[in-house]
Amino acid sequence: MNRLQVLRQRLAEHPVICAVRTSEDLRCAQQLEGPRCVFLLGTTLREVPQSVSSLSAKGHSVFVHVDLVEGLKPDAAGLSFLAEHAKPTGVISTHRSVVEQAREQGLLTILRVFLLDSEALRKGRQLVSHLRPDLLELLPGVALVGLGESRLREFGAGLIAGGLVEDKSQVGAILKRGVLGVSTSTRSLW
């Protein structure tokens, strides 16, 4: 089974993705049973290798949002450093060049697209069509409940929803839209 298949299996078993922003979030994610998907959303270059290592040791698939790592320039050299020294499962970014360069480093890729309006939706579909990221995270996640299923299928990628998800009813409603997972920093949902 390849890494993307393993990730999809983990999301099928635990569709709520731990969005780690603080050291307390990290401690909570490290204590969760069963392999999960974890997004590191707020960290520093100095902390990334240890954070990824401790989460990976628990069997978690760890994705680093490289746009939010303090001290890391998300260019070819920065992504090479990340791949070699931190060894995450993959990266998250809103930038085309990061997704392309991360793939060259052998990392799985998650492209983040913000659903601001119809034009953002159209541009997001074009970007996904060109880049072919492993997964697509749509934000805010609660907006997916109002989108037609045909519009979601147009992306042609495995979908994750994130942002403004605060309770179980929202998670349930979003998952019914056919997404693979819902990322949230609300620890009570993990």
From TrEMBL:
Q: Biological process GO annotation list?
A: glycerol metabolic process; regulation of DNA-templated transcription
| Source organism of the structure | Aminomonas paucivorans DSM 12260
Q: What is this protein called?
A: Glycerol-3-phosphate responsive antiterminator, GlpP
Q: Which Pfam families match?
A: G3P_antiterm (PF04309)
Q: Which InterPro entries match?
A: Aldolase_TIM, GlpP
Task: Quote the SUPFAM superfamilies the UniProt record gives.
Answer: GlpP-like
Q: What is the lineage of its organism?
A: Bacteria, Thermotogati, Synergistota, Synergistia, Synergistales
